[in-house]
Structure to design on (739 residues):
């Protein structure tokens, strides 16, 4: 098992290296440079040469790449007390903790057979440990300085991670809590009115662009709702209102939820449509399997057949799907964050691309890459925990 | 005579499809005594498995429905029982073994877990007692090291071993009737023989009645007391092993016997095959269903559906208008069918 993980990590490093080279090259090929906008300003002319040298843009490409790579993996040595100090706030981890708790609780119920719950517990402890490590993280890497004068990239990215996680994991939690049971119920009552309704709704939600959903939610649940009832229930922009620091604890929670609901719902609607379809298909597969017929022939009650024999098998492919989705959360939700003025990574990313801010773009792409590599391994390990046929040697 | 263990009367199980109504089982009646081993023979789509699923109450509306009929098991009409009552019979008093042992066990639970589940459910015993019963059940089907294999998962067993586990599971609650739906079709020939042997001994020891569904007449000959031959949703002939193999009264049975391979056959004749294919169960032909493939068909076969009636030896039944006039025993498809059959049953 350890050998397997090590091997996968080595492969992952190779993949990440290849990814960085490809993205670096693509950035060069995409035309335009980080200084192009400054060049338009005649008063900046004297500084262009200095900046080019300072950022190493006159160096050959392989040297530029090497500089980036060396910085990326070396610790931050900034003497600036403001530099590379950001860490990940515990408050932003609440949705993650809830998600892990929910998964662990589900695992506990589903695997009520001996030994399995210990695995779930270990997993939980593991997650919490990582979270606390994250919170008290004192190590920072030298990811360079933003070309657009926004400061060290490390701080830039980590000041956004919290917002992105808060939004992403809340949406994921919502999508899972609604999508999975929905899919299961649809499969059990295949071709019923409810199933057909769910299928239609899922296709509508899945094929509607996120910006349409987001704007529709803003109009309906914020604007119209306030016009009709006179109560301001949801906000359409930002993460918190000004003066958040002075609010009481309960007010803070209310304020946070009022801001979080609409963007999270927009993302959740689309991904829950996907989850419900996937869960329905996976459940139907199992419901038509031979071993389910065996379970029926044994005289087991219907509930037991579905919960013990069907669900346990039907959840296995979903685990992989969710693990990979977690990886993509790290990259942020570009469109949703833009519409709701959410200060997350997605927005940082899109702005950085627009301004050809190499260090920022590279860092974010690499974070997504690292997330995918790690979550792939996690998915494979979870697969092995859930399916006794899978062995790693 | 004592009351039969199982009495099926005019059972009709239909399936609604987009093309029309599939009459998978269309008015069959038969009886099984306690301890009887009955072979149900026929080609794919003849209604063998649907008969079994109907008895088990595993036909699920709206896709399929039992339209008419009675299935009287030990004095109770199973079709009138509630789902709860049926659950206590399923797996407890009537058990079933399926065709493909590779997929019939749940891959994520241990053998022991799946065995004990049935035992706890039907015998109201504690987990520890169920474990003992499960170990004994595995020993009965000759799985070595049973108390350890209990903790293994299905993928750690071979196909033959898994079928043994299925048999152990089926017999663990001492059912009165065991339905085995092509239990050896997915296994290789040596394993087949072992499994059939094992089932024979276990069924004989316990006096369990077995309904063996198969298309292999050789397996039937070695295992069963009685046979019913099914064709296109109906029974075309039934009787004892002797009756069927030595004195077939229906051209279909006769044709099936002629298409058997025999290892001891010295004359290297070509295997007979019944030409044509079974009719669509949606559009059944007028008159006798076997008529389009029957070389003896006449006008009456075209017009009137023959009913199952006593013919040939005492207790033997066949659904053919011409049984009396045709001496199928004497006719051979292209060799010595009668002689072949006597070799098989001896």
């Amino acid at each position: 098992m350890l050998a397997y993980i090590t091997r996968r990590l080595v492969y992952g490093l190779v993949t990440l290296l290849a990814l960085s080279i490809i993205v670096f090259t693509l950035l060069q090929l995409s035309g335009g440079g980080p200084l192009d906008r400054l060049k338009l300003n005649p008063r900046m002319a004297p500084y262009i040469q200095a900046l080019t040298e300072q950022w190493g843009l006159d160096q050959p490409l392989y040297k530029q790449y090497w500089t980036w790579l060396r910085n990326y993996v070396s610790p931050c040595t900034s003497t600036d007390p403001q530099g590379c100090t950001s860490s990940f706030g515990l408050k932003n981890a609440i949705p993650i903790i809830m998600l892990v708790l929910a998964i662990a609780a589900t695992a506990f119920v589903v695997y009520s057979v001996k030994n399995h719950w210990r695995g779930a517990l270990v997993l939980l402890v593991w997650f919490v440990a990582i979270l606390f490590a994250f919170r008290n993280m004192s190590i920072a890497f030298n990811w360079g300085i933003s070309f657009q004068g926004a400061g060290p990239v490390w701080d830039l990215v980590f000041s956004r991670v919290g917002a992105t996680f808060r939004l992403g994991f809340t949406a994921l939690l919502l999508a899972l809590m609604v999508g999975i049971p929905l899919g299961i119920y649809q499969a059990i009552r295949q071709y019923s009115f409810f199933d057909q309704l769910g299928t239609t709704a899922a296709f509508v939600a899945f094929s509607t662009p996120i910006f349409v959903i987001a704007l529709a939610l803003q109009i309906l649940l914020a604007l119209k709702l306030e016009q009709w009832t006179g109560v301001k229930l949801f906000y359409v922009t930002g993460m918190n209102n000004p003066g958040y620091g002075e609010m009481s604890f309960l007010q803070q929670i209310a304020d946070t939820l009022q801001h979080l609901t609409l963007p999270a719902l927009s993302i959740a609607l689309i991904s829950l449509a996907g989850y419900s379809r996937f869960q329905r298909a996976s459940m139907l597969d199992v419901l038509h399997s031979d071993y389910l017929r065996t379970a029926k022939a044994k005289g087991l009650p219907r509930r037991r057949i579905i919960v013990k024999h069907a669900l346990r098998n039907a959840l296995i492919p979903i685990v992989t799907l969710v693990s990979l989705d977690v990886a993509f959360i790290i990259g942020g939700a570009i469109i949703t964050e833009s519409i709701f003025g959410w200060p997350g990574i997605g927005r940082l990313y899109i702005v950085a691309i627009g301004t050809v801010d190499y260090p920022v773009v590279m860092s974010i792409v690499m974070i997504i890459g690292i997330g995918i590599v790690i979550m792939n391994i996690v998915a494979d390990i979870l697969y092995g925990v859930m399916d006794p046929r899978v062995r790693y040697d | 005579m004592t009351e039969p263990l199982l009495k099926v009367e005019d059972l009709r199980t239909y399936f609604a499809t987009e093309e029309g109504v599939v009459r998978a089982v269309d008015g069959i009646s038969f009886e099984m005594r306690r301890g009887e081993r009955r072979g149900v023979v026929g080609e794919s789509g003849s209604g063998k498995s649907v008969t079994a699923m109907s008895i088990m109450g595993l036909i699920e509306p709206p896709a399929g429905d039992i339209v008419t009929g009675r299935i009287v098991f030990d004095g109770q009409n199973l079709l009138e029982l509630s789902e709860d009552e049926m659950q206590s019979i399923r797996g407890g008093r009537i058990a079933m073994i399926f065709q493909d042992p590779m997929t019939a066990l749940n891959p994520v639970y241990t053998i022991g877990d799946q065995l004990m589940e049935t035992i706890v459910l039907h015998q109201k015993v504690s987990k520890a007692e169920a474990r003992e019963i499960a170990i004994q059940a595995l020993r009965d089907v000759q799985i070595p090291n049973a108390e350890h294999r209990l903790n293994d998962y299905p993928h750690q067993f071979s196909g033959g071993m898994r079928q043994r586990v299925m048999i152990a599971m089926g017999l663990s609650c001492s059912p009165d009737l065991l339905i085995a739906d092509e239990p050896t079709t997915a296994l290789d020939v040596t394993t087949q023989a072992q499994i059939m042997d094992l089932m024979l001994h276990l069924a004989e020891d316990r006096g369990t009645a077995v309904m063996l569904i198969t298309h292999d007449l050789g397996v039937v000959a070695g295992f069963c007391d009685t046979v019913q031959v099914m064709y296109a949703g109906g029974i075309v002939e039934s009787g004892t092993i002797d009756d069927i193999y030595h004195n077939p009264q229906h051209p279909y049975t006769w044709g099936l016997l002629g298409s058997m391979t025999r290892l001891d056959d010295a004359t290297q004749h070509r295997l007979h095959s019944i030409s044509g294919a079974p009719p669509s169960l949606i559009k059944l032909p007028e008159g006798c269903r076997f008529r389009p493939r029957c070389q003896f068909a006449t006008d009456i076969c075209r017009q009137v559906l023959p009913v199952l009636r006593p013919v040939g030896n005492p207790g033997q039944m066949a659904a053919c208008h011409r049984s009396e006039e045709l001496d199928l025993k004497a006719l051979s498809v292209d060799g010595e069918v009668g002689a072949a059959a006597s070799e098989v049953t001896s």
Remarks:
- The radius of gyration of chain B is 21 Å.
- Residues 45 and 193 of chain B are 25 Å apart (CA to CA).
